[in-house]
Each structure stands twice: as structure tokens, then as C-alpha cells.
Amino acid sequence: MIFNHFIENRYRFLAEVTDAVCSVWPSNRVGVRLAPNGCFNDMGSTDFREQFLYVAKQLNALDLAYLHVVDGLGFGFHELGEAMTLAEFREVYDGVLIGNCGYDKETADEAIAKGDADLIAFGRPFISNPDLVERFEQDAPLNEMAAMEHWYLPTGAKGYVDYPVLASST
Ligand SMILES: Cc1cc2nc3c(=O)[nH]c(=O)nc-3n(C[C@H](O)[C@H](O)[C@H](O)COP(=O)(O)O)c2cc1C
Question: pTM, whole model, 2 decimals?
């Protein structure tokens, strides 16, 4: 009889890396990031839900600093089933859980208030809003999102350090 060990075997590499890293630093200084819905670099398999819940359960035993889950679909979705949610990870992961991708202040606050995540991480909004935290604090509008062709520029300040901060109110 042939057993399907794919789920356990796919976790082996991450398990060995986490073990190695945690042998150097205390586990509560080490974080892991997962992208269960992503399709970047051909990611995705039909058993993604079983796979990622298995991984999250294994990681739950390691007392890590955090588990960071890219749950949003804004960077592409493999469409191999219903997208995984933070709530699913919350059920199997007791430690600090971070969500990410496509959030704004309102949806981030909502996810935290519902208990689906402890923190929400922001990527692209920080590129075009160097003072993102202050803007959130003041409920101020955000700058327009940087265009993808401005994410990586070989030289110069354009698209790198030239996004305007909020005009000073004093
Ligand atoms: C310029 C840029 C570079 C990124 N590089 C990486 C990377 O090397 N590894 C990774 O896991 N995610 C990378 N990401 C994805 C971000 O970490 C984040 O998941 C994504 O921007 C979605 O969050 P957001 O909607 O808040 O931007 C990158 C994103 C951007 C915009």
C-alpha cells in the first residue's frame, strides 16, 4: 500500500530550516511567513488547505515570535479552491498571528477586532506613504499607490524617497 506523505514531506525543508535557525536564536525571536493563497513562482497545489493547516499546526508547537500569513489575494491567487483566511489559521495557531496583503486601516482594524489576527502588516502603502503610521493615527488620506514600474528603480530618488509626507498642520 502506498501512503500519501506529500503533506509531511513538503514541510520537511521548512522544519529543518526553522530547527537550524532556532538552534542559533531563541525561537521567540524567529518568525515564519506563509503565502497559502499565492501563485508567485508557480506556487499552489490542490491540497493547499491541508498543507498549510498542517504546517501551521507544526509551527504552533515551536513558540515562535510570530506566524505571518499573506492571506490577501492582491499579489495573485492560484484559484485551486476557496482562498484560505486568517480565521482558519487562528483556529490552529495560538501564538502571534500577522495578516497581510491588500489591507487598509479599516480592514486591518476589523481583522484585529474580530480576533483573526494580532497584527496586520503593510507593504505597498509604506512605499508611497513614508509617514503611513502618522496618517493612520490621524485618519489622513493616503498618497496614490506607487506604480509597479516605480518599485525597483536602478538609481535616483524618484519613486524611492520622493513621496510626500503629510503637510504640517502647524
Ligand atoms: C517592492 C516589493 C518587494 C517585495 N518583495 C518581497 C519579497 O522579497 N518576499 C516576499 O515574501 N514578499 C515580498 N513582497 C510582498 C510584500 O511583502 C507584501 O506581501 C505585499 O506587498 C502585500 O502587502 P501589501 O498589500 O500591504 O503591499 C514585496 C512587495 C513589494 C511591493
Answer: 0.93
